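Problem 12. The chain below contains 399 residues. Write out its predicted structure in token notation.
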Amino acid sequence: MTRSFARTFTCFGLGLSFSLCGPSADAQTAQSTQAAQPTQPASQKKPERPQPPTRPLDAPGAPKFSRLDGVPGRNPAPDADGDFVIGPEYLAAPELKVADGVPQGRVEQFVINSKDCKRFNPGIARDVFGTVDPSNPKTLIVETHPIDYMRTVTVYVPAQYVPGTSAPFIVVHDGPPMGRPDMNLAHVLDNLIAQHRVPAMIGIMISSGGGDAQGHERGREYDTMSGLYAEFIEDEVLPLVEKKYTLKLTKDPEGRATMGNSSGGSAALIMAWYHPELYHRVLTFSGTFVNQQWPFNPETPDGAWGFHSKLIPESAPKPLRIFMAVGDRDLLNPNVMRDDMHDWVEANNRMAGVLKVKGYHYQYVYCLNAGHGIGNAKPQLLPNALEWLWKGYPAGASK
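Solution.
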């Protein structure tokens, strides 16, 4: 199935719910072909998870932030490295709206059936969350079953793309479902490209295989510390994008970026870390740099928490440019594990610290009055983050 969308969708997703790069993780199960479960009676519904506490920006282990807070709409400079605080009130950036006279790209969608894939075929799913492994508190015992699923790929092609040329591109995790493309990224890229703030890039938004975290397909794809998902995209998704829409995607890692929210953020870094010959630019919102890998791997026993506890500190710097943002009310130990490796704020703070020590180009933004996914801050921050991400790559360049 393939669909193309005209600008009748241009207002999609511009309300209060800013869903780009990460709807709620469990909403990704809609991509699966599994039947929906009946709605539980209200009396049987689980109690809502308590809101995470607000963590102070000067908590132990936090970076020394440059204070930009108190002025709605204020962001770090798009060429500045380091640690910054914004909020607690936010203004949506004008780049999210369609602007008169700005060339508008096109948005296409198609579906990949898991049965047609070499990797992640079949998928997996769980019925219950799982229990802590009594012999290893860093992992869970989870019962899974195989599933078949459909994966939607949404492709943005800028109006400035010249057929036959090699275009830079950005891979975005947790892409929208078929028939409901979130147009925020298309609007932002239209405006930033026209303003020569980013190159004329292709946007490739890929949905997961469904579910969330340990025992589900999304968790297997996004939280596993290996190059497998990057290889899946390289060998099985990008060739379809090129073929279906007569595009040519650059092989230059400087012209390739990855982007994601929550576990999609950890997946973005995992792709570039294990395959720096493919990707040099990484953008994360509320990156899940915690211990969520499953099944347990003794080579990376702490999951993505190992990025800041071991991998980055003990490795030579890689040619990566990394943007991170987190909310001061981001997730804190949302499951049964008590391994002290499930605080999203602490994890992102630690990431900033090790990136600074190792001399990486990074920008870390601490968003006051924001929760997981920094939903209220993202409409303000996204254009600036993309501009920072692509610094050093010539606007309009193709290789």
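Discussion. The radius of gyration is 20 Å. Students who got a different answer should revisit the alignment rule from Section 12.3.
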